[in-house]
């Protein structure tokens, strides 16, 4: 068997450019992106599947990417984001931390601590204690606001009064004047 001859100047003798493109197409089809294959076989999750699985919108997932809280494992040739199952665990972590009152900045700090081999549990504990103290201060402030509203509600006994005689509005105006 003879080895194929090399075409001169990139053209096969007697073969048109269109035929050459057709000949190349099947070879290209066999050179698939591993991420494309993984997306088809379900190993990886597209952004839509991840959103549905975790009950988080695709816009939120993109925002988390912008905030460096989440990274796709890769992208297909077409540019679709692909995520691993680790992204599901990370989103569960983020949602749980938010439920505990953590801001995205604090969650980022926690994730950075988790990824840093030099960090230890006391680093995470310190962040949690700081957050708890902040929440307790907010609760104290909100209780004071609630008490102030209760006192205003108590002084308004006649709901049929005209606005000019409303004791709540008068009390708010007088407290503003004294400031």
Secondary structure layout plus pairing:
Layout: H1 17-30, H2 34-41, E1 45-46, H3 47-54, H4 58-66, E2 74-75, E3 81-83, H5 85-99, H6 104-115, H7 121-155, H8 167-177
Antiparallel strand pairs: 1-3, 2-3
Residues in β-strands, percent: under 5%
Number of strands: 3
Looking at the structure, what is the overall shape?
elongated
Helix percentage range = 55-70%
Provide the gyration radius in Å: 32 Å
Which residues form runs of ≥5 with pLDDT under 50? 1-30
Number of helices: 8
Distance between the termini: 101 Å
Q: Name the structural class.
A: mainly alpha
How would a textbook summarize the main sheet?
3 strands, antiparallel
Residue-averaged pLDDT: 82
Biggest sheet strand order reads 1-3-2
SSE order: HHEHHEEHHHH
Keywords for this structure?
single chain; 179 residues; mainly alpha; 3-stranded antiparallel sheet; 8 helices; 3 strands; 4% strand; disordered N terminus
What this model shows, in words?
With about 180 residues, the protein is mainly alpha-helical. About 65% of the residues lie in helices and about 5% in strands. It has 8 helices and 3 strands, in the order ααβααββαααα. The chain has a 3-stranded antiparallel β-sheet with strand order 1-3-2. It is elongated. Mean pLDDT is about 80; it is low at about 1-30.
